[in-house]
Each structure stands twice: as C-alpha cells, then as structure tokens.
Design goal:
This protein is α+β, with helices and mostly antiparallel strands. The protein has a domain at 39-127: Immunoglobulins (Immunoglobulin-like, Sandwich), CATH 2.60.40.10. It has 2 helices and 7 strands; from the N terminus they run ααβββββββ. Strand 1 and strand 2 form a beta hairpin. The longest helix is centred in the first third of the chain and has 20 residues, at 27-46.
Length: 128
Amino acid sequence: MVLFIVFILSMCIYMFRMPVDEYDHQYYEKGLNFNKDFDKEKQVSVDHAQPIINVEGPVAKISFVAPATGTIRFLRPSSEALDKLLRLDGNKEQTISLTNIVRGRWQVVLEWESNKKAYLYQQDIYIK
C-alpha cells in the first residue's frame, strides 16, 4: 500500500513539473484561412493560370496569363528575418532584381488577382 501511495505522489509531482502545453490561440481562424488559400490554389489549376518563374542571373522574370495585381513574397526557409514582400504592378510580366537577395533556396509565394478572381501559387527557386 505504501508503494502505491509513493507511486501516485511521484506521478503527481512529475505531472506538475512538466511544462505547460503551448497551443495556438488562433487555431480556428487559421483553419478558415487555410480553406480560402486552398480555394485560391485550386483556382490556378482550374483557370490554367500558373505563372512562369525564370531566374536569370541577378533578375527573376515572372509571367502571368493576364495582368495581375497583388504581392510576391520571397520566404527564406532558414531565416524569417530575410523574407521579402514585393508588390505586383498590374502587368503581365514582372521583372524583379535579385541583387539584394541572399543566394540559396527560396520559396516564392505569389498571391494575385486577375479578371476579378483570386489566385495563390507557391514555387521553390534557387538563387545563384
């Protein structure tokens, strides 16, 4: 009986010393946004609106099917501090200078609107 009581007390002490579980307070809101983003990604394939991204030396050229307004995000997987956000100027072709962007692997996230439809497209690129 004494061993059982010692066991229960040691389990209680152990459980109270464990760190508090951190959880995301915005869990449900992020879930709703995920559905919106998924619909935008799906719209790219439905409309065959996949942009073409070419990295040529110190310049990236992005070609859209129709004139586009929105944003381009360059996300660096290894460091969030290096992320860049650029605006699209409403043309079918965008030319972006890469001289101030660190070499290596980047994820490009394009979020734009064309012909009153919203789109989202992601692609990994390597900047030399």
